[in-house]
Amino acid sequence: MQTDIDPRSLIGRKAFDSAGTKIGTVDEVYLDDATGAPEWAAVRTGLFSRDAFVPLEPSEVVGEALRVPFDRALIRQAPDFGVGRHLSPEQELQLYHHYGLDVPGSETAASGGDFGRLTSPPEDA
From CA 63, how far away is CA 47, in angstroms rounded? Predict the structure, then answer.
């Protein structure tokens, strides 16, 4: 994902899967504690649905949308940890494994340090 984008600006953007199908709206963005880089987005998948966590790397911002390079079905099957709370290292590992992604900075995970903190919404939201 672009590194020069403010993670708060992702909140409220529509999210689309690899086929271009709308999966929902970005509800929250989670930052890596060590780097401060945006790492996960919680996408509200429907009116009565839950939020699904999607990785922001290798996702990309295209125009006003977040393009997530995974199928909608895989995204909807992501582990449900609820939103508004810090993701534990174990929860992040589950998400990385779910999406078949390499775990970045495995020394961070091995140290047991927390990561995946929640960013605050833009002040004008």
Answer: 24
